[in-house]
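Project channel, design review

CF: Before we commit to the Thalassotalea psychrophila constructs, I'd like one complete example in the thread so the newer folks can see what an input/output pair looks like. Taking MFS transporter.
RD: sounds good, go ahead.
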Amino acid sequence: MSHEISLSRRLVIIFSIVFAGEIIFSLPFHVARFFRPTLLDVFSLTNTQLGDIFGLYGIMAMLAYFPGGAIADRFSGRRLMSFSLLTTALGGIYFVQIPSPTGLALLFAYWGVTTILLFWASMIKVTRQWGGKATQGKAFGILDGGRGLVAAGVASIAVLMITMAFPTSSVVMNINEQTSAIKTVISFYSLLTVLAAVLIWFTIPKVKTENLAINTNSITAHKQRNAIAGIIEVLKQPKVWLQAFIVLAAYCAYKSLDYFGLYATTVLGINELDSARMVSNASYLRPIAAITAGIIADKLRVGRVISWFFVLLSVSYLLFSLLLPNTASSNLIIEANFLLTFLLVFAIRGIYFALLEETKLSGQLTGTAVGIISVVGFTPDIFFAPIAGRIIDSAPGIDGFNQLFMLLFGISASGFTAAYLLAKRVKEQV
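CF: and here is what came back for MFS transporter:
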């Protein structure tokens, strides 16, 4: 295989990465995101219980991020990603049996390892190398935007499958129909996860991932770094910690999107299928937001763009907490703000890993840096769902959601502070 990869092959590679990068999280996250009211009824769970289950996933994921980064710097992304997808799909066989809350907790703990340890840092590293030095914003915008398109597309198909299976139950489904619907969705996502594993195995080159960049002449050979020395080098850099906090704030905002379907049914009075349809349709904004943000970031600097997006997101959450629904004017504003929030969250999420190149972090330490940033940045997998579930359960209805939105306002404002400080530090380096 030549060192230069054709444009068509590069497109196939990035499509495979994008598809696999979203589908691996479909079983642990999509079912709850798009079908949360139905999931809660079928598994007889409260928001607090489901939040604690996600918290266990987060704990295992945190333990997996750090070693996963070092592993990604040493082994083939093709093998690591394919194996992760297959082991994740195996969990779907148990999920579709509708296990008890204890069994569900163990399943999510298992997924915390299979979706992260061998997959996450490999995906980020391959994407950075695929994008080269000049188009990091576009590369990560395509990755996250494409993942959003995959998420929305498969969710729409799942909603359509349920609608066709239960055409007379568009308003309220009984528990038997809800159980059949959830089993259909789980089986669908499990099959897609297996398909993603096959796709990665046959499309990602067997050669080292450095050869995925179209301009490989700019990549020079480096001796194998000592793993411990690399970790210490990364930990000593303040810019890595600032990036980690930016990811943390952005990921809290992203996790909040899981509750918009429940907000629609609980506060706005929308039925379960329409709620799932509304969230899946809003998810189509993700590719638009992420790719557009990537283009803008490549022109204006990533840190600066993220700073302004956090300002707008803070205002958006504050507006949610102040509005009262069920009047014509307020409902219209809420719906517009709903779309704005999705756009801003997707835009920030689409480009925050492009900061790796902007801050001039060594490419040879990408996996290690991603591991460290992810350990901090994705801690919301541990604490956000348990906190949000308790807030909503302790103050049912609009009051609980208003408290949640005020919490998110404060987190987003903190994200702006971290992004501003990082952008200032990058400017001083130029």
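RD: helpful, thanks. Residues 7-212+226-429 form a domain with the Growth Hormone; Chain: A; fold (CATH 1.20.1250.20).
CF: The chain has one domain: 7-212+226-429.
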